[in-house]
Amino acid sequence: MSELKMNLWRRLAVGCLIAAGVWIALGLGSGAVNWKGGIVFALAAAALLIRGSEHWCGYAFTVWVFVSVSAAFVYPQAFLSWGGFKLSGLIVPLIQIIMFGMGTTLSPADFARIVKMPWPVFVGALLQFSIMPAVAFVVAKVCGFDGEMAAGVVLIGSVSGGVASNVMAYIARANVALSVTMTCVSTLLAPLATPLLMRVFAGAFVPIDATAMMCSILNMTLLPVLAGLLAHVILYGRGTWTRKIPVLLAIAGASLVLAVSATCLDASAWGVCAPVRGGVMLGSLLIGLVTLAKLVIDVLLGRSDAWMEKVLSLVSMSGICLILAVIIGQTYDVLIKAGFLLLIAAMVHNAIGYTLGYWLAKAVGAGLGIAGFRLGLRKTPESLISEADCRTVSIEVGMQNGGMATGLAIDVLHSHVAALPPNVFGAWMNVSGSILANWWKRKKPDALGERAGL
Fold first, then answer.
1. I want to staple 428 with a disulfide (CB 3.0 to 4.6 A). Which of 44, 136, 346, 349 is the partner?
2. Where do the DSSP E strands lie in 13-130?
3. pLDDT of residue 257
4. DSSP conformation class of 58
5. Which residues have C-beta within 8 Å of that of residue 231, sequence separation ≥ 6?
6. How many Å apart are CA 262 and CA 255, to the nearest integer?
7. Rounded to two decimals, what is the model's pTM?
8. Residues facing 82 on adjacent strands
């Protein structure tokens, strides 16, 4: 980060800090102003100050999570509706945009890595869709949750890996390529695995429509990710066609026409595909907009830096924070009653995910290395899963896709209460993930990102 940008962030932080001090002083002095709002400004100042620090910038998003949560606690009514529009209606589209952003980080090479590094992927997927939902069920029972609250706890344990895990893997000096691959694999498995797990573990708490849940996952996550993959090819493809104005105009035009058609066409005309109408519409719209942006910024203006990655990263982080605030605003009364116990549940579930992910990956890697050596398939008994890979599996297993779980709670279970655990768990996962990643960052693993060869 340049010195100019760092100074800008610091000046913004000082401005927010002064505003926070004035706000708190007025609130405590006259009582006419809610002094707690000043706390929100103070946290925003801390986030800006951290963002301007080269050493601590990895914690900036964590602090912004605290800002959004504290704002929802202080002003819960502000996150219910704006101008008559219920903000809960933004949750699913925001999740689709976040998943689209994840798709733009993927390429066909990520799928090829499954063949090159199958064991970490296998261990991660097995833990993600077996132990984590079972642990969530036990945690819900031990905490005494029932009904929609218990279903929400099981739901966050039954979804795929979270998008933020890739960032945490980078900070932790883990294997980022493996992290992206594992997130992609678990997301592709989610349409089948999540509804089945919810029927098994959450069916005792609330009725589960597995078919509706599968369609919702396809609409909310899989289609946006596939659209993101197409956008990745358009943005970063090496073919000459990716810089030809007529080709880009044709792609953008076709995508936008498809988006408008999907919006205007009556739902009954979609038939069995009606549940994925929203995913087709938004995915096409985003592909069209990204293509137009590439045409203007890359081709016409000649800029070739990673502008789209920065934009989508900012949109994704902002979307996560807004989703957190909206759900807290919608379930404020419930959260006040069960918030502390729900936070304890989140800590326990998350810690078990990190611990099992790391140590079981180590055990499997060591066992496979020894077995291969004894069978004469390897020259040494070294582990098949490196330290960097173990860190990656740990982060992937411990960090679930809170956005997907929130969307399913709203879209399929039709319950803001069921959406509360995914948000509390998601907020805590971002905090714990940042702490763990920055701790590992100071402990460089041996043979970073490499595994012992055959």
1. 346
2. 81-82, 85-86
3. 92
4. G
5. 100, 103, 104, 286, 287, 290, 291
6. 11
7. 0.81
8. 85
